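input
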Amino acid sequence: MNKHIFYFLLSLTMVLGLTLGLSPTAYAQVTEVNNSEEFVNAVNNGNNVKLVANFNGSIDYLYFTKETTIDLNGHTMSVRLGNVSHFYIKAHLTIKDGSSDGNGTLIFENSTTQTPFLINREGSLTLESGNLHFIGTSIKGIDVGGPFTMTGGTIESTGSSIWRNGNNVSISGGTIKGGFCGDNGEIDITGGKFNFDPSDLLKNGYVSFPKKR
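output
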């Protein structure tokens, strides 16, 4: 193919994508990772990430500065963070499990940090599917300094699942096992399953969940 035609078609594709409102992640490279080092390198390079193996690893501060998607792909990644370390989110991060069985899991095990996910006010986090497990003393799984949206998946914590720390929480699906802490920021719950009564979190109650008597 003539290179001028190739570049014309590439430019046309990108323009159509922007016109149709496609996310920049539609063009981002997807990197398949087998271990924590590959995972960190992919994130630092601004790539989307797809797990192709189960693995454990220790990770210090990890910054998400570009729109990124993590596809757990049916695998388990177990992370041990250093003291006062986080997955620090300064752009939009989406977590999903693209596998058919839905068993993809991200575990923060025996972590000494209180907040594995720290959402900066410039960032946001969406959980579409997959499982997040937070295991540790006084752990607060997701620090909602920026918007958090949950449309599916599962969050399970030995402490608090979500720390309402100044921004909005929107839950329309999925399962949460482990309560909330903090009361700073708006919260909208229109669906989902909980191992506690979430109605007291809402100004008008939660009609889809029976009140405890």
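quick obs: The two ends are 71 Å apart (CA to CA).
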